[in-house]
Specification:
It is built from 17 helices and 16 strands. The chain has helices spanning about 1-20, 70-80, 95-105, 120-125, 135-145, 175-180, 190-205, 220-225, 225-235, 255-265, 280-285, 300-305, 350-360, 360-370, 380, 420-430, 430-455; strands at about 55-60, 85-90, 115, 155, 160, 165, 170-175, 210, 240, 245-250, 290-295, 315, 330, 340, 375, 400. A four-stranded mixed β-sheet has the order 2-1-3-14. Strands 8-11-7-12 form a four-stranded mixed β-sheet.
């Protein structure tokens, strides 16, 4: 076990060394700038002779891949037009982002700006520079009162990131496969989903078509885009944290995880899903080999730009446990954070100028209109057109999309995570009740430890009712 862990660390360390040495991100950058990328803001263009002789280089690490082409084209425009001779270098760190960031800060080679993937953890480690003093009244007005959310992009009143877009979650389905199997409409309950997956497999297996798939290679990714929205829409807290009691309770996940297990056991799940990442899954869906899966509102853009789709497809609200809507689908962390400023940056003012550009109306509007996300900045969203992109309509926010309160974050229980435990149960079986009880014990012990240390404040909310969250996005 120690050898495997050492090998993993060495692999990440080697990759980080190469990145820090080159920082080119080649192979992941846009082949050509997007035609609808943002133009430079008025007054940003200046003659080369007026600029300082030396460039100020800003290193930007992003954990996102689906929007890389657009972001790269925006950065290219910033580099060519900003009056302060700032040059931003982007590197995509979609794999092992957290480990790479830890190593970079430990070796004093941290990026100046990076994806705010875990504000709680990063703030504890001292990676983040508070943005409070950078935010002008105009910026605060632009983003509105709901932009700063404790536990998402703010910790103890310190603002560490700003939102750009949210990600709605939907059931993505192969409409042609549904027609072939005689299924009139997308499933609204778990039982209907299991039945639909079975019917699609029965009529399509001979041609390599299976009813269901998820990227089970990564438990957090697979269950985050599927089990979590199903649970939330059913009124079950998506991260297992019961806001009413102030304790973790994973028992409510049982019908959701059992449904995934049933589809695996009865052969309705695409063979090899346990070793599948999301991009290979998308490639299979685009070829017509998968009946349905669950994922984010980035899918229409992905099928337009990365995996040209060969089938008729659509999207619908995720099914619920019993077919009734008792909560909302959380629009996710993307709804309230995007970029973070490094506390170790030697060029904070220049880095903030770059961040300000990325948060400008031009960039944000282009982000939505290119189908990369649903803007969560109301003052800007009302100025943006709906993306002219096939399949986006049913991903747009409605009455059953919104924001849950932030569950306690920034700590880890002893042993495996709930995603890892549930994934093992789906693939190899076990006693769900015992697994859930063990998770409750370990997660609550870790939570109590953090509360005692004063690093987490989590109080019961006896009157909390997830159904009251409905309608906020209308």
């Amino acid at each position: 076990m120690k050898t495997k862990k050492l090998s993993a660390v060495l692999a990440v360390s080697t990759a980080l060394t190469l990145i820090l040495g080159a920082c080119s991100g080649k192979g992941e950058q846009s082949q050509s700038p997007s035609s609808s990328a943002p133009a430079a803001s008025p007054g940003e263009t200046t003659k080369a002779s007026d600029k300082p002789a030396e460039k100020t280089k800003i290193i930007y690490w992003t954990a996102g891949r689906h929007d890389a082409d657009y972001v790269k084209s925006a950065i290219d425009k910033f580099n060519a037009s900003n009056p302060d001779n700032i040059e931003v270098e982007m590197t995509i760190m979609a794999e092992n982002f957290a480990q790479s960031l830890d190593l970079a800060f430990a070796s004093n080679q941290a990026p100046d700006v990076f994806s705010a993937t875990d504000v709680i953890d990063h703030s504890k480690k001292g990676y983040l520079e508070p943005l409070n003093n950078y935010l002008t009244p105009e910026i605060k007005t632009q983003f509105g009162d709901r932009a700063f959310i404790e536990g998402y992009n703010m910790v103890d009143g310190n603002i560490y990131s700003l939102p750009n877009s949210g990600s709605t979650l939907r059931l993505v389905y192969n409409a042609e496969a549904f027609e072939k199997a005689g299924i009139a409409s997308p499933p609204k309950s778990l039982a209907e989903m299991v039945d639909a997956a079975k019917k699609i497999t029965e009529v399509g297996k001979k041609d390599g078509l299976y009813g269901f798939a998820l990227p089970y290679k990564n438990p957090a990714s697979a269950l985050g885009r599927s089990a979590v929205p199903i649970a939330e829409l059913s009124g079950v807290p998506g991260q297992g944290y019961d806001f009413k009691t102030g304790k973790f309770d994973f028992a409510g996940y049982k019908p959701v995880i059992d449904a995934f297990k049933e589809m695996k056991d009865n052969g309705s799940t695409l063979p090899g899903s346990e070793s599948l990442d999301i991009d290979p899954l998308r490639a299979q869906f685009a070829e017509g080999k998968i009946g349905m899966y669950l994922s984010y509102s980035s899918e229409p853009g992905v099928y337009k730009n990365q995996f040209p789709i060969k089938i008729k497809w659509d999207a619908a609200l995720p099914p619920t446990i019993d077919g009734t809507y008792k909560g909302i689908v959380n629009q996710g962390v993307g709804a309230s954070r995007w970029l973070a400023l490094s506390s170790k940056s030697a060029n904070k003012e220049a880095a903030w100028k770059f961040m300000s550009y990325m948060y400008s109306e031009e960039v944000l509007i282009g982000y939505q209109e290119n189908g990369l996300g649903i803007l969560s900045v109301p003052s800007v969203a009302q100025k943006a057109n709906k993306p002219d992109i096939a399949g986006i309509e049913n991903f747009l926010p409605g009455a059953y999309d919104g924001m849950w309160p932030a569950a306690p974050q920034g700590f880890s229980p002893e042993g495996k995570t709930w995603q890892e435990e549930f994934m093992k149960y789906i693939l190899v079986g076990g006693d769900f009740d015992s697994i859930a009880q063990d998770l409750n014990t370990r997660y609550n012990a870790a939570l109590d430890k953090e509360k005692a240390a004063g690093t987490i404040k989590a109080e019961p909310m006896p009157d909390f009712d997830p159904i009251k969250l409905q309608g906020a996005a209308q």
